[in-house]
Design brief:
Strand order of the largest sheet: 1-5-3-4-2
Number of helices: 15
Largest sheet: 5 strands, mixed
Number of strands: 7
CATH topology of one domain: Conserved hypothetical protein from pyrococcus furiosus pfu- 392566-001, ParB domain
Distance between the termini: 37 Å
Order of helices and strands: HHHEEHEEHEHHHHHHHHHEEH
CATH architecture of one domain: Alpha-Beta Complex
CATH class of one domain: Alpha Beta
Shape: elongated
Mean pLDDT: 76
Strand content: 5-15%
Radius of gyration: 25 Å
Structural class: alpha/beta
Length: 306
């Protein structure tokens, strides 16, 4: 799939000028209208809230109604201090880039105009800007962040490396976040509701059996396990599973040592690593989940100093 081509003239950003709404009358020639749009870029304006439509790429799914009401009360009393950010999409029409909480709270307060900074932004950056703002403010839960990364990859054709650079993150961090989406819905919900941490969830990713995942999740919640405790439980499960297997036997101290090495490599490369013994020597097997993930592992292996 080739990357979408954006920014081919103002029509790409302001389609309503090329295809005005039926019955909507233009206040002048197309060149004059486009000039008016250009004059609205990189400025702060007081805009009617009714003229701003939500960001279709908003990564945030949940808004705390109590905190939203508190923000609305504050805006009603003191006004909005920090402008929202928008892009122009037509004559006096705008699309939100960032600041949905502020926009919602302003509407709740019954205020009809809002200060807004107008930027020229394409669709790819619209997703990234919304993600960046929420991530920097720590307003997204880990699953929302992971879904945002996934949208950049699927809808903008970014690689994991490009997502990392776009958002100022380590590539391994992006990979780890995306792997959270492979977890069962119950675990994702626990993570979204802050019942467990990202560290707990990452430990459960390596457990293949869904029933064992649920069992470990229940124990972690009921007994208030730390991340280290759930990692130990996952390790014991792996040892139990491999007992009686020729690959690794828990009673063999050398094999236990190999299991520890396997866990260290799993944490280092953020993927499942299996060490299999043979009559002489053995093999180390790395799992990867996409072509991009394979490139990431190869890059990490190549960067190891001799």
């Amino acid at each position: 799939m080739t990357k979408k081509v954006l920014g081919r003239g103002l029509g790409a950003f302001f389609p309503e000028y090329d295809h005005p709404d039926e019955g909507e009358k233009s206040s002048g020639s197309p060149s004059i209208e486009k000039e008016k749009v250009l004059q609205r870029i990189n400025v702060i304006m007081q805009l009617p809230v009714a003229n701003i439509r939500p960001n279709p790429y908003q990564p945030r799914e949940d808004f705390d109604e109590i905190k939203l009401q508190e923000l609305s009360d504050s805006i009603r009393m003191h006004g909005l201090i920090q402008p929202v950010t928008v892009r122009a999409i037509g004559s006096e029409k705008y699309e939100l880039i960032s600041g949905e909480r502020r926009l919602r709270a302003t509407k709740m307060a019954g205020i009809t105009k809002i200060p807004a900074y107008v930027r020229e932004v394409d669709d790819d950056d619209l997703i990234a800007f919304a993600l960046i703002e929420n991530v920097q403010r720590e307003q997204l839960n880990p699953i929302e962040v992971a879904l945002g990364y996934k949208r950049l990859i699927e809808e903008c054709n970014y690689t994991q490396d490009q997502v990392a650079k776009k958002l100022g993150k380590n590539r391994t961090t992006v990979t780890n976040m995306l792997r959270l989406l492979t977890l069962r819905p119950a675990i994702q919900y626990a993570l979204k509701s802050n019942t467990i941490s990202t560290g707990h969830a990452r430990s459960l990713v390596s457990v293949e059996d869904p029933k064992i995942q649920d069992k470990l999740l229940d124990r972690a919640v009921q007994d208030d396990w730390s991340v280290r405790q759930i990692e130990e439980a996952v390790r014991k499960h792996a040892l139990k599973k491999s007992s009686g297997n020729k690959v690794l036997k828990a009673k063999d101290q050398r094999d236990l040592h190999l299991m520890e090495i396997s866990n260290r490599l799993r944490n280092k490369f953020s993927t499942r690593v299996q060490i299999r013994k043979k009559t002489k020597g053995g093999e180390i097997r790395f799992e990867y989940y996409s072509d991009d993930d394979l490139e990431r592992i190869i890059s990490m292996l190549e960067s190891v100093e001799e």
